[in-house]
Amino acid sequence: MQPLALVNGAAHRLGKVFALTLARNGYDILLHYHSAEDEARQTQAEIESLGSRVILARADLTDPAQISALLSEVESLSVLVNSAAFMPGGNTESLSIENWNTSIDLNLRAPFLLAQECAKKMTEGGLIVNITDMGAQKAWSRYPSYTVSKAALESLTRILARALAPKIRVNAIAPGFVLQSGIVSAEEWERLINRVPLKRPARSDEIAAALEFLLKNEYITGQIIVVDGGYSLI
Question: Which of 16, 27, 33, 143 does the annotation list as catalytic?
């Protein structure tokens, strides 16, 4: 039986990319999703076509009880990828308390609770990869809760790396612009991409390569792997 990897937010976008990458590297997948069931099943089919086993798991990761339930039947785990995230718009005057709390609960508290639970299952050692953001080192005034949560997640990555060593390694990947989201217009997307020194968004496989690197190099822990085309330079 292949080792098992949990990827949360794996139904679509980068979470799906990470799940497929792990499958190609010989892992079975515990595929978490929240509400995108149709997309989750499509991702399941794609992973199974690669020869890996898939366990679908629906959960609201802002609920600690559902995080515990998500892993209740898992005996052994090798990899955790924390990919699920919430990015509400709203400046410091208009952002609602509900959106602030959801961002912190999903983007920061959930990775912490998942790390606690998964560490118990990583009896033979393991790897935790938090997906942060190049914005963690910026001051994105239109996305305060998201930016704060991702900056804190980078700090949490380093804390967990010290706490869980030597058996479990903890790192983060901070992608740049990859996939345009519905909250960004085509004009704004083009403006942002033109600011990137490499003048293009990342390809999904370029972000996936960072995960492969962390899987294969077992002497890296507590690091943030930035894959942003140079955006952090500006």
Answer: 143
Percent of the chain scored above 90 by pLDDT?
87
> Is 146 one of the annotated active-site residues of the chain?
no
Catalytic choice (150, 199, 216, 219): 150
Rounded Cα distance between 7 and 211, Å, is 12
Q: What is the pLDDT of residues 18-63, one digit of tens each?
A: 999 999 999 999 999 999 999 999 999 999 999 999 999 999 999 9
Output phi, psi for 57, to 5 deg: -140, 110
pLDDT for res 84: 96
Is 150 one of the catalytic residues?
A: yes
Tokens representing 64?
A: 């600690």
What φ, ψ does residue 45 adopt, rounded to 5°? Answer: -60, -40
Return the closest-CA partner of residue 77 out of 1, 159, 154.
1
Q: How many CA atoms lie within 13 A of 122 on its CB side?
A: 22
Query: In whole angstroms, what is the distance from residue 1 CA to residue 27 CA?
Result: 9
pLDDT at 206: 97
Phi and psi angles of residue 82, each rounded to the nearest 5 degrees, phi first: -90, 95
Structure pTM? Answer: 0.96
Q: For 175, phi and psi rounded to 5 degrees? A: -75, 155
